[in-house]
Amino acid sequence: MTDEEILQRIDAYCDTQPRERALAEEHGSLVLFVAVKPGFPYYARPRAGARGPVTAADVRSVRARQRELYLPQSFEWIEHFAPEMAAAAAGAGLRVHRHPLLVLETLAAVPPLPPESAVKIVPPDDPELIQAWAVPGIAFAHPGSEIGRAGVTERDKRAADHDPASIENVRERLRSGQSVLATVSGPDGPLASGSYQSAAGVAEITGVGVLPASRRRGLGAAVTHALAAHALARQTRTVFLSAADSAAARIYTRLGFRQIGTAVIAEPPDA
Hints:
single chain, 271 residues, alpha+beta, Aminopeptidase, eight-stranded mixed beta sheet, three-stranded antiparallel beta sheet, 8 helices, globular
């Protein structure tokens, strides 16, 4: 399969997967996904199929609709298929972020884990599921790869404050196989977690996060490896992810991923 064909499969996934739990509203050359089930809100992106170039007016129209619905003003796309959209988003007042887009080529050997830790795929009835769900929220609230103070105490506070409807949606997706959740746990429970979503033979690894107090121990790599291995065991043809930056991308390349393109996100400057 050529890189162009792989990118087309990934782009089709990005248009198809949100439709499992969202309505699609077309605004010029863009489509906005409006979630109808609990969970994280979706983004807007260029319409699939024949369309005109994305304009700043298209972006402003979607932003107005997102404000009306109290949704994050978030736009995501693959640069290869909409090279003009970055300028349109900037012209509509958004800040544009580019991220390495990587696809799995050949999965490397299982990375070593620290003593007293173990990686696992989390079943929907696992008693640690809510703690595993809470880990990325703490990780992303403290961006970067530096070791920090936030750890299991902060994780457990977030877990105690969970939305039951959102957790039940996670359980439903795990039961159906639409999502797969992996963790690395120590004596005090999950320290790192992440998931993948799949549709039509394509899997996207997302939300891999490590508690700041447990960083730089290879836990994120172990979670990513477990998810990729699980997807391959299900005969998934294409496994991909987007990295935060080039430093994170280097970690994924050691697991057998390679950069194939650029994923782009546009958000308001204060997002």
